[in-house]
Amino acid sequence: MTITINAAFDGGNIRPVAIQGDRLDLEIVADHQSDFYQWFYFRVAGLAAGQRITCRILNAGRSAYPFGWPGYKTRVSTDRQAWRMVETGYADGVLEWSWTATGPVAWFAYFAPYTMEQHADLVARTAAVPDMRHRALGTSLDGQAIDAFTTGTGGKQVWIYGRQHPGESMTEWWMEGALEWLASPAAAALKGKATLHIVPNMNPDGTRRGHLRTNAAGVNLNREWHAPSAERSPEVLCVLSAMDATGVDVAMDIHGDEAIPANFLAGYEGIPSWTEDHGAKFYDYGRRLAAHTPEFQTDLGYDRSPAGKANLSMSTNQLAERFGAVSMTLEMPFKDHDPNADPEFGWSPVRSKALAVAMLETLAEMIDGW
């Protein structure tokens, strides 16, 4: 059989360079009109059971976050349901792994994918729930809908949105877990205290195109919140307009991080209107979440912005400043949550969904005081 490599599908990204026997040399394709790249997702076919292949991504050293490759492990699947880790090495700018085939076809990805077809299924399931109100807030540059759901009757306005960076596919797994929990009786207390608005995918164009970080115009949406435009960032423009109409008391922006092997939160230190009382709500949430689940910790994370130096083009800072919201960015790992590691699957879709539930349960316990 002849080995073939293909990424011409929803969310796919790879460029074959050479096939030399059982060695496959590859390159990741940069986001359209952008230098960003790191996400990969491709299929290898024509394999014989027991055949051992070696994949080498030759341009890994020039990717957006090469410091994220050490300690990272590629995901592989033969059924596109279970995604297991493969021992992976990084040296001299090349990402390399070997795998022994169990059948004729295998898929490899940076993380378990969440495609636009999966998104459409999520929208269909959620829209059928009686107290989940669906609307399209607008459309992307490629004309795809920016889907949103609203549920709950309480006075607090909670906005939860994710996948501004499309290659961070764990974010929509998190969203799936959040929407499933919000559709269950367990969410009744939170929905009595708050009205929740959920945007499960802010960047459908980048998702379908197999981008890491940008939309169809090569724009990083999480640098557009100070002045979104219809020409560059209609995805942010329509979401922020909807937020202006309701106000925002709590904002959760869901992301993935390439380098840090743990789940953590980033806040809004450095905004012009920062006060210790405002910030204390965010810090208390993190402490309570860490006490609630072993899938979260507070020791690792990003450096805090100095006073007055927050980047207001980023959503968490903009919404904290604009609305006085308790605003946060969740970062989940492409590697694993080392404080509670899983040697087979690493950080995974199942764990992303469970973390969403833990975060909403913690929010339900605290939101009265916000």
Description:
This protein has a 7-stranded mixed β-sheet, sandwiched between helices. It is built from 8 helices and 17 strands. Strand 8 and strand 9 form a beta hairpin. With 370 residues, it is α+β, with helices and mostly antiparallel strands. Its cofactor is Zn(2+). It comes from Sphingomonas metalli. The active site is at residue 331. Residues 112-370 form the Peptidase M14 domain.
Assign the CATH architecture of the largest domain: 3-Layer(aba) Sandwich
CATH topology of the largest domain: Aminopeptidase
Q: What sequence of helices (H) and strands (E) makes up the elements? A: EEEEEEEEEEHEEEHHEHHEEHHEH
Number of helices: 8
> Which percent range describes the beta-strand content?
25-35%
Shape designation: globular
The SS-based structural class is alpha+beta
Chain oligomer state: single chain
Strand neighbour order, sheet with most strands? 11-12-14-13-15-17-16
Tally of discrete structural domains: 2
